[in-house]
Design brief:
The protein is an alpha+beta fold. The chain has one helix and nine strands; from the N terminus they run αβββββββββ. A hairpin with a 5-residue loop joins β1 and β2 (58-66). The longest helix has 33 residues, at 9-41.
Length: 140
């Protein structure tokens, strides 16, 4: 005669509870790690200047992208319609410089932007477009 010993219902409930607690703990740890890495890798855009076009419909925005300590800052210029808020995803930069640079835009009419630039010591051009739609960019 064989006696089989079945675990009691109490032990099954304790095992399920322990597995659930361990699962919640692991999920919480993964969430905290993801949150920390997301904050570490995030960037923010700081608008440095805005130069309105003569017809008042658009502006040249100069902004700096600041990221974590492991990624150097970059300076950009973008043409933005005045009827929308600035979004780097919508208003792509026509000028990008790795590092700090002083970018001085001025409009010559409504379709020509003149850019004077004093780059910092470090860095170099990321982007250097000659046109944005029908607007010509003149670099000085």
């Amino acid at each position: 005669m064989t006696l089989s010993r079945r675990p009691s219902k109490l032990w099954i409930r304790i095992a399920i509870t322990m597995l659930a607690v361990a699962g919640v703990g692991i999920a919480a740890m993964i969430g905290l790690i993801w949150f920390a890495l997301e904050g570490f890798a995030s960037c923010r855009n700081v608008i440095l200047s805005s130069t309105l076009s003569p017809d008042g419909t658009k502006a040249v925005l100069v902004f700096r992208q600041e990221c974590s300590a492991t990624v150097p800052d970059s300076t950009y210029a973008s043409i933005v319609p005045m009827d929308r808020t600035f979004s780097r995803d919508r208003s792509h930069a026509f000028l990008g410089f790795a590092g700090h640079a002083e970018i001085l835009p001025s409009w010559r009419g409504s379709n020509v932007v003149e850019i004077a630039m004093m780059p910092g010591i470090e860095g170099g051009f990321i982007r250097h477009d000659e046109k944005v739609g029908s607007i010509r960019i003149d670099y000085k």
